[in-house]
Inverse folding.
């Protein structure tokens, strides 16, 4: 079943290429060429997924991501020529679900869109998947994390990482397993990306991030989310 996708790309030829490939995959596509139009169109039509070029006139893609993420949980894919890892991490911090760097293969982009849409549909329809680890509750329907009843604000990337760990409490996940489980195979997501997300999650859920009780490092192996009730 096709999705309604909004593409915001100021390069007209690139935008039309993306449109053709997505429409060939069964999706309906609307294209705009600046960030202000992207915000207006997203608010007007409520797309199932948004593809944002980072470098756009009027309002850049990062600011569009920031604005729309505050209003909606629509999946957002950032499209950019900048592949510096700090830029990737900034995109995730602003609430992006994925990050595709130019040049890219259109078929690869379509495959990534399918994965994100499938993940979003599973999250919406799986009603019995609330995860509880110690006093942490991860609710994929509400896309909400609470600790001791208090809401913990997480980006989509942090939420995916925490959900993956909470799905198998006390299991040690290697960094490569977390990269594949959260993002799929992607040369732009590295072990350092996982380390940075872990560090930020610790600041949000641990009483003392320097002495973590939940998110533990298993040296030489990876990370685990501890539920002491399960041993």
């Amino acid at each position: 079943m096709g999705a309604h996708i909004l593409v915001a790309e100021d390069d007209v030829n690139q935008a039309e290429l993306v449109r053709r490939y997505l429409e060939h995959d069964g999706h309906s596509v609307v294209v705009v060429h600046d960030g202000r139009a992207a915000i207006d169109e997203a608010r007007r039509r409520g797309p199932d997924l948004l593809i944002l070029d980072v470098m756009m006139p009027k309002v850049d893609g990062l600011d569009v991501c920031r604005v729309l993420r505050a209003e909606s949980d629509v999946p957002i894919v950032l499209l950019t020529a900048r592949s510096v890892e700090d830029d990737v991490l900034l995109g995730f911090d602003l609430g992006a679900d994925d990050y595709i760097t130019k040049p890219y293969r259109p078929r690869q982009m379509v495959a990534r869109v399918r994965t994100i849409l499938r993940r979003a549909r599973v999250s919406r329809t799986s009603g019995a998947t609330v995860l509880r680890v110690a006093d942490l509750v991860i609710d994929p329907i509400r896309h909400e994390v609470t600790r001791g009843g208090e809401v913990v604000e997480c980006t989509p990337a942090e939420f995916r990482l925490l959900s993956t760990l909470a799905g198998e409490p006390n299991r040690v996940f290697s960094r490569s397993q977390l990269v594949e489980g959260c993002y799929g195979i992607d040369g732009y997501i590295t072990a350092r990306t996982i380390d940075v997300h872990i560090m930020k999650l610790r600041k949000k859920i641990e009483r003392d991030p320097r002495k973590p009780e939940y998110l533990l490092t298993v040296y030489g192996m990876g990370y685990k989310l501890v539920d002491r009730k399960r041993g």
Observations:
- The chain has two domains: 4-124, 127-230.
- DSSP finds eight helices and eleven strands in the chain.
- The domain at 127-230 is CATH 1.10.10.10 (Arc Repressor Mutant, subunit A).
